[in-house]
Amino acid sequence: DAGVIQSPRHEVTEMGQEVTLRCKPISGHNSLFWYRQTMMRGLELLIYFNNNVPIDDSGMPEDRFSAKMPNASFSTLKIQPSEPRDSAVYFCASSLRGTGETQYFGPGTRLLVL
Amino acid sequence: AQRVTQPEKLLSVFKGAPVELKCNYSYSGSPELFWYVQYSRQRLQLLLRHISRESIKGFTADLNKGETSFHLKKPFAQEEDSAMYYCALSTGRRALTFGSGTRLQVQP
User: Fold this and answer.
1) Which of A16, B61, B85, B93 has the most CB atoms around its CB within 10 Å?
2) Which among A35, A99, A103 has CB closest to B94?
3) Residue B53: which residues within 8 A CB-CB, separation 6 or more?
4) Closest-CA residue in chain B for A93?
């Protein structure tokens, strides 16, 4: 298994543009997590899904952010419109069952909004 | 609300010296605690979790509920231990809450 796959690995965009980040969890894992990492705030949970259903989205900063998980093997995190303060590394992680299990992280997407 | 505090941003030690990375948490219930590590140019990965009570790469961590701490220790640091270490808390209801991380530098 290649582990959690994220794309793109790097994204540079201009303020106001839509950004879509993609994640493929490990096959057979039923929980998926999106995190954001910045120097100021460290690693923060944005949202997590269990069996494709959003369970906790209290970390989603505002309405400009949305996340979907249409099936067990794919999730997206969308920012529309993007702003410079959204610049960060976005990580996706998956676990076998829920929040108490080991989470396996993807390589991250480094986003720069100009 | 749950919170994880790692008071040291950077810890620098010499090879062979003991290491202790501090982690304190706040949560009124029964937490599950983890240490994750990120080596240079690698993914964030689990180092150990308190319920397994095992030693990984010579590291151990004991949950002290009285002091609400989960410090990571190693008796003799190696250069390959240099990395970013994150303490994390799971309460079941909410996914992982991470501390701000401590960068460990092991000098030769």
Assistant:
1) B61
2) A99
3) none
4) B44
Average pLDDT over chain B, rounded to whole?
91
Q: What is the DSSP letter of A90?
A: E
- Reduced to 3 states (helix: H, G, I; strand: E, B; else coil), residue B55 is coil
**What distance in Å separates the CA atoms of residue A103 and residue A94, rounded to the nearest whole number?**
5
Nearest to B58 by CA among B15, B4, B12, B100: B15
Bond before B108 cis per omega within 30 degrees: no
Q: What is the DSSP letter of A13?
A: E
Among the partner residues A3, A103, A108, nearest to B96 by beta-carbon distance? A103
**DSSP class of A85:** G
Handedness of CA B80, B84, B90, B93 (dihedral sign): negative
pLDDT of residue A33: 95
Interacting residues of B4 by C-beta distance below 8 A, sequence separation 6+: B23, B24, B25, B87, B88, B89, B97, B98, B99
Question: Distance between CA B65 and CA B49 in Å, rounded?
Answer: 15
User: What span, in angstroms and rounded, lies between the C-alpha atoms of B103 and B105?
Assistant: 6
Q: What is the pLDDT of residue B52?
A: 78
